[in-house]
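Supplementary notes for students who missed Thursday's class. We covered one full example, reproduced here. Read the sequence, then the structure, then the short commentary at the end.
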Amino acid sequence: MMIRSAASLFVAVFLAQPAAAQQPASPAPPATIGSRFKNIQVLTDLKNAPAPQLFEMMQFMSGSLSVSCNYCHVSQNGPFESDDNTIKLKARDMIRLVRTINTTAFEGKQVVTCNTCHQGSPHPPAVPSPWHKSADAIAAYKADIASRKASSTAASPATVAPTAAEILARYRAAVRADRVTSIRVTGVNAIAMGGAALPFTAEAQFPERMRLMVDQGGPVETIISGTRGWRRTAQGTTDLIPGQVSSTRHTIELVMRPVKYDESVTDRKAAGTASIDGVPCYVVESRSDVATERLYFDVSTALLKMIRIDTPTPIGTRVEERRFSDYRPVNGVMIPYLLTSHYMEDQSEFRVATVEVNPAIDARTFERPATDPFIGEWKLNPSKSTVLDQMKVDHVAGNTYAFDLGAGLVETIVVDGTDQPGLAGTTLSVAVDGSKWKVVRKKDGHILLTAFWSVSDDGRTLTDDYTEFGATGAGTTEKLVYKRSDGTSGFAGTWQRPIDTLTSAYVLKVTPYETDGLSLAYLAVEVTKNVRLDGKDYPSAGRNAARGATASARRVSDRALEVTDKIDGKTTDTQQLTLSPDLKTLTITIHPVGRRDPNILTLER
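Structure (token representation):
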């Protein structure tokens, strides 16, 4: 009651704290390193570079030292801006050192990198090891030297190397995938740093539709259909942004598409031969502005053995390798049953168990699942709603009292008429005025409201002559009558009154928020909760949002959400949002802290 006006009571009932209602906006500019990441102290000259470039640089450093993210950062998943891990401070010094060497000794060219010294070790040895070679190793060393001398003087036989087009044609003929229109693959995906192997099922209708289902302690389904994509979990369905669609498509295609390279690239060139795991391979290369890709084909079988991608970064070249092995024929099509991806900081394996070539797949499999059932506009039905306004006053000692005036949080105030710190950046004063108490709340020195409390002779009723002052200074006065539900006499006790002024004008509008959340907009009071369904607190904003307020949300089931509101980290209430089986009615059950009886709001679509 004393936190807000009657007009904004709906805010307190819902405790609708987070960010203000969003207007449709133009597409945001691409994220940069400076806009997306915090506490950048060394690479400040790259603040306008694309944000993904920072990840590529971090991966290069990880590979140079053979460590993962948590070697320098506080954990594998951040917060990455934290400096609590002192090794991160040393890493900054190393970046400065490398850049200084390249600037002073090599005219700014990228000659020295992390890998120059570290070579896969966090602590590169400063002293070389003495000669420790067996007789066989020495003989092999001498033979290698002699072979190099002989090859440098001997005339090479004239051979005609195949062109890139010929190498790729031999590969497609060896795979025999020309008549493959659909495929279904099952197996497990194991990530070296990620713990247990995860079962997966992948399906595709070529060329545009594909689906990947992974069990991550619960089903996670990712669907790509043309240029669109979405991910479905127990928490609901979220759309993928274009970058996610592209990267997800690439990952799924590596598992399912029999021909593993991107056939749309036309400027590939033959680049000689190389040995991969002792197997002679033809090399086909393509270059772009961002990376160099090399494909390695087994000379004898013509099958693809490896893809290597070199991506230059401002501090070194990031390398990724994808290897294909254990080829087996399935209905005449050659399928690799082991796909291994080596990154700079990790590696993963797709181990195939079963493959079906050209299975019948229902096209509806690749359609977007139904929209989140909470999305829509909901109007309050006052006749089916039960809301109590409650305030609680506890006597602490002397003339000191603890006030809970409806927000579920306590303000301890000395009843002497002085302004004392209150909730949400306000001050609260309580003074004895004859047989009444005068209550005044201010913010930034301006009076928000005044109230004169009086208790009936039998101690059962508290009358509140309440005035709220708007931005212009004009006041609106009400007489509110509370009944005692706890306590015996005086102002100390628990006081309640039913709210009978709610109307259908109170509207809750639910829309998607980012890729995996919901926006709960309370239109009548211009307050919105923008939350992801991950149980994490998101800060509040908006005209009626309390200072220090946050909200979190999680999905309990397809038809149930749980929302928790806090102020300054302290929980003020927990709400259960439940949909009826026909999805036409939304019931919100609000449990304010310290209250026995919940508020129940019924809204209709």
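Commentary. DSSP finds eight helices and 33 strands in the chain. The two ends are 29 Å apart (CA to CA). If anything here is unclear, bring it to office hours.
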